[in-house]
């Protein structure tokens, strides 16, 4: 049967009925890839699976939430949606608004959005409002303006977003036959980790799984309010998708941590970029910097034994590497070989680098 998106696939578990017009781009159903080389380099006997959310239609997991949020906005008669974004939410909002024939307004932090994401929001025809401020400023403004203009908020404070995003947990349980022991995610606003926990609990309660994972949230060291236990006013990290100091799902995420016996931790930008590069070089999987935070954290916790041998671990790779070409190239630029257009120089380049 033709796969036509996650709402159709999980219709009975989502707040839609037979009259709801679905706004879908075929999102969800992303690959769960078992890592073959990295576990050996760690010298530990663990199963690590990557949930490759970068293969959603606009290149991030935000599509799972956006298909629901835009479907419900259209059902309610909205002609326009609005979001604050570090990039991927605006890309998804722009695409799903185009699909629905409605308008998208996106507030982005000036100069702090990865090039691919900006290109997406622009080419889909969103109205882009750059603010002299960060994501947290944008979020505050979006909440305020929604009372003064006819726009539906499609940030993760919109409950339909989390409903859509919980389906990633369903897919993982269906593929593994049960929930993993640990599920590691990068955390910004903490909507996604909360949505996954909802999904795991729902399948557990309906006896579709006999276990629930410990949920582990990793942040960038310069933007780690959950690790600090307090909001951060000037978050900084190269992982722009999680450059958030005032998370919107603060309470939900703490509940996830205590209910699942999980934890929060942070990684430096250097550790994050090293994990991104390791994954591309050792496994052939390209994710954006923020996404690599999940693997960077999992690797550290496996190495220290906090995640014990014999565990089954799922790491969500939230967004595709092509979202942020600048960061990828700047990591590797010195490795390029420059030659004259003659065969002997090509040959030498090959023989010197075998
Ligand atoms: C949005 C996003 C995150 C953070 O997700 P939250 O639900 O805000 O915690 C992480 N990585 C990428 C690539 C994202 O786009």
Automatic annotation (TrEMBL):
- List residues, modification N6-(pyridoxal phosphate)lysine: 62
**Pathway linked to the protein:** Amino-acid biosynthesis; L-cysteine biosynthesis; L-cysteine from L-serine: step 2/2; Amino-acid biosynthesis; L-threonine biosynthesis; L-threonine from L-aspartate: step 5/5
Record-linked InterPro entries? Cys_Synth/Cystath_Beta-Synth, Ser/Thr_deHydtase_PyrdxlP-BS, Thr_synthase-like, Thr_Synthase_bac/arc, TrpB-like_PALP, TrpB-like_PALP_sf
Keyword annotations of the record: Amino-acid biosynthesis, Lyase, Pyridoxal phosphate, Threonine biosynthesis
Might you give the EC number(s) for this enzyme? 4.2.3.1
The UniProt annotation places pyridoxal 5'-phosphate binding at 88, 188-192, 318
Domain of life, per lineage: Bacteria
Show the catalytic activity. Answer: O-acetyl-L-serine + hydrogen sulfide = L-cysteine + acetate; O-phospho-L-homoserine + H2O = L-threonine + phosphate
Q: Which GO terms describe its biological process?
A: threonine biosynthetic process
Under PROSITE patterns, the record lists: DEHYDRATASE_SER_THR
Protein family according to the UniProt entry: Belongs to the threonine synthase family.
- What is the name of the protein in this document? Threonine synthase
């Amino acid at each position: 049967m033709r796969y036509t998106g996650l709402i159709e696939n999980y219709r009975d578990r989502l707040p839609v009925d037979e009259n709801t017009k679905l706004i879908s781009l075929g999102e969800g159903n992303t690959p769960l890839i078992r890592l073959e080389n990295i576990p050996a380099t760690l010298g530990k006997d663990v199963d690590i699976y990557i949930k490759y959310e970068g293969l959603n239609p606009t290149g991030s997991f935000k599509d799972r939430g956006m298909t629901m949020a835009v479907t419900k906005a259209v059902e309610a008669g909205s002609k326009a949606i609005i979001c604050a974004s570090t990039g991927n939410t605006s890309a998804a909002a722009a695409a799903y608004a185009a699909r629905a024939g409605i308008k998208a307004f996106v507030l982005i932090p000036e100069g702090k959005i990865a090039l691919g994401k900006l290109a997406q929001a622009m080419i889909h025809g969103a109205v882009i409002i750059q603010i002299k401020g960060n994501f947290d400023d944008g979020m505050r403004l979006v909440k305020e303006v929604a009372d003064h203009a006819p726009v539906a908020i499609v940030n993760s404070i919109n409950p339909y977003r989390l409903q859509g995003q919980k389906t990633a947990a369903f897919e993982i349980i269906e593929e593994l036959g049960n929930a993993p022991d640990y599920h590691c995610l990068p955390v910004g606003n903490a909507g996604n980790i909360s949505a996954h926990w909802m999904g795991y609990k729902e399948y557990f309660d309906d006896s579709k799984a006999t276990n629930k994972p410990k949920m582990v949230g990793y942040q960038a060291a310069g933007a780690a309010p959950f690790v600090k236990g307090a909001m951060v006013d000037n978050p900084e990290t190269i992982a722009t998708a999680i450059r958030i100091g005032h998370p919107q799902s603060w309470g939900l995420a703490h509940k996830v941590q205590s209910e699942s016996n999980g934890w929060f931790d942070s990684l430096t930008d250097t550790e994050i970029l090293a994990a991104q590069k390791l994954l591309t070089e050792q496994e052939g999987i390209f994710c954006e910097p923020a996404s690599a935070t999940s693997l960077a954290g999992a690797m550290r916790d496996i190495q220290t034994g906090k995640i014990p041998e014999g565990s089954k671990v799922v790491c969500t790779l939230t967004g595709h590497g092509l979202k942020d070409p600048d960061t990828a190239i700047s990591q590797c630029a010195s490795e390029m070989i420059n030659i004259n257009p003659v065969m002997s120089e090509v040959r030498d380049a090959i023989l010197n680098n075998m």
